[in-house]
Amino acid sequence: MLKKLRIAGVFSVGILLILASFSGHFYYPVEVKLEIRTSNPENCQLFYTDYRGFNGGQSFFSPYQSEGGFSTVCFSLPKRYIKNLRIDPGFHSEFYEIRKIEIRTAKESISWQGAEILKNFVTINIQTNIQDSDPYLRLNSNPTPDVQLILMKPLSAYVTTINKSLVVGAVILLITIWIAGLILIFSSKSKHITYLFKNFYESAKKRFLYLQAFARSTENNISQSHAIRRLKNLTKTFLESWLSFTIFLSL
After folding, report:
1. How far apart are the first and last CA of the chain?
2. Is 114 helix (H, G, I), strand (E, B) or coil?
3. Thinking of the domain 28-157, which architecture would CATH place it in?
4. Residue 159: how many CA atoms within 13 Å on its side-chain side?
5. Strand locations in 10-56, DSSP E?
6. How far is CA 14 from each of CA 25, 56, 98, 183, 245, rounded to the nearest angstrom?
7. In what order do the strands lie in the sheet with 121-124?
8. What is the per-residue pLDDT for 250?
9. What is the Cα gyration radius of the chain?
């Protein structure tokens, strides 16, 4: 009985590990666009944060050159939990003019123009004088050129960042597997349980290797479809998670 309780505990932890491994797939990809111009070639930097503060390790750069007109600067953020955003429009210029900021996910989008930007972003090291009717926001940098615009509210207050239906479906599926696994554990012999888990892993591994070989064989002829790439990544994630606790199971 003690052996079965140990296996059941490891199995439960494994289910949680699988859920954690797939958590990145529950989020919609986030895209941020700016229409901006300045007098010099610049680098726009976008920071994103989770539970920690802003840091350079969680940021992207995008160079732009206005040449008299507005440039469109785009950032594609990773599929993960993102709490807030910070935009540094540049590092060297005396002024920046922003016509539009847009945040888009696969679910929806939101955008601000001109004076609307100041109502939704906290500005740091910036001086500005704008009327509600002005078509763009002009930002004059202070002597310290660390110009920042920080989103006032968490990102989830503006756009839907998580696929709730996918989360619910995954949780229901894993709970079903967990309950079925516990029934199997307490109604079978310990050695037989370990064998079943290992046999399932080996079988799934063979299918993954076949899928990987098939995907590689098509690279020279046609580009892999999004579905194939996604299926390959999901299968790899699942196998890595499953292996992590089948090793413990066999100890």
Report:
1. 16
2. helix
3. Sandwich (2.60)
4. 24
5. 30-37, 42-49
6. 18, 33, 48, 16, 5
7. 59-64, 42-49, 84-88, 148-151, 121-124
8. 45
9. 25
Dig out the tokens for 237 from the structure.
């994630």
Bridge partner list, 138: 97
Task: Enter the tokens of residue 74.
Answer: 């785009």
Which residue's structure tokens are 């599929």?
A: 79
Does the pTM surpass 0.90? The reply is no
Residue extents of the structural domains in the chain: 2-25+163-249, 28-157
Contacts of 28 (CB under 8 A, 6+ apart): 79, 105, 106, 107, 160, 161, 162, 163
Mean pLDDT (10-residue bins), the chain, 251 residues: 73 77 81 91 92 87 85 91 92 88 91 90 82 79 77 92 84 84 72 61 62 55 50 57 48 43
- CB neighbour burial string for 219-228, b if at least 16 within 10 angstroms, e if fewer: eeeeeeeeee
* Sequence-distant (≥ 6) Cβ neighbours of residue 151 within 8 angstroms: 84, 85, 86, 120, 121, 122, 158
Write phi, then psi, for 72 (nearest 5 degrees): -100, 120
175: tokens are 């709970």
The tally of CA atoms less than 13 A away on the side-chain side of residue 27 is: 21
Reduced to 3 states, what is the DSSP secondary structure of residue 235? helix
Rounded Cα gap, residues 24 and 47, in angstroms: 18
Neighbours of 73 (CB within 10 A): 22
